[in-house]
Amino acid sequence: MEIQHQSVLETLQGRIALVTGSSQGLGRIIARTLADAGCTVLVNASNHPENAERVATEIRSTGGNADVCCCDVSSESNVNNLFKQLLEKYGAVDILVNNARLDPWRRTGEMSEGEWFSQVIDVNLKGAFLMSQAFFAQACERRWGRIVNISSVRAFRPAEPHMIAYGVSKLGMHALTRAYAHNGAPFGITANTVAPGVVITENIKKRLSPEKYASEIAAVPIGRASACEEIADAVLFVIRNSSVTGETININGGMYYAP
Ligand SMILES: NC(=O)c1ccc[n+]([C@@H]2O[C@H](COP(=O)([O-])OP(=O)(O)OC[C@H]3O[C@@H](n4cnc5c(N)ncnc54)[C@H](OP(=O)(O)O)[C@@H]3O)[C@@H](O)[C@H]2O)c1
Fold first, then answer.
1. Residue 184 in domain
2. How much is the pTM?
């Protein structure tokens, strides 16, 4: 039998893609990448809706389709209301990228260890869970869906004291991926994790001193941070390739294996 060579990668034209925390940084570039691939992108943020508006406008100005869907991913009622509204307006949400995270530099002096831990877990992990639950039921009905969880190399490496909650929240996302990959397989739903190392974003440049940034880069075997576009490319790959599910794509310049 002659094997026909044809692209098995799926076209995303007309798909509805919700990217949490896409008002800046990596999420913004994932949103733009999915819009370039033909999706209508729903740009999400919680604290600064004006930034989400700016990203949606930016996408539309280059011919893409984008709308804003602000909501606090850690609030169950917000998430459920959001999905209700989106289903009324669009009839479907096909792709969910769980990218939102609590800014690790946001902790104030007054916050106790326990309060901080709970807040980080609430946004980074519970948020991804609530969004995935709301996404899953409606995607099952149409027998097509994609979940991508944005983790971090810090899920696998011993965390510095101030990053313990962050590392724990990120490791939990891998369990979410496995569960939704397993439960979603009979319904045409895939779930994967993309785990970056150090990524160049507006925030990282703003938050880290030049010395701290240099020491972060020194820990990357290839000697540089990843560009947001390199991470977004992996997100696009796992969305378009329906035979990849339950996997983690590590993009960290070799940090995963570094001593
Ligand atoms: N940057 C890196 O070097 C790096 C490395 C490894 C992994 N990652 C992962 O990549 C992802 C993006 O990182 P980033 O550096 O681009 O993040 P970032 O610049 O800190 O942006 C975080 C985004 O999440 C939103 N957000 C925060 N709390 C939210 C909530 N409760 N509900 C909804 N949205 C919320 C923020 O908007 P508002 O503040 O307006 O709500 C913002 O859009 C994260 O999952 C991060 O862990 C990043």
1. yes
2. 0.97
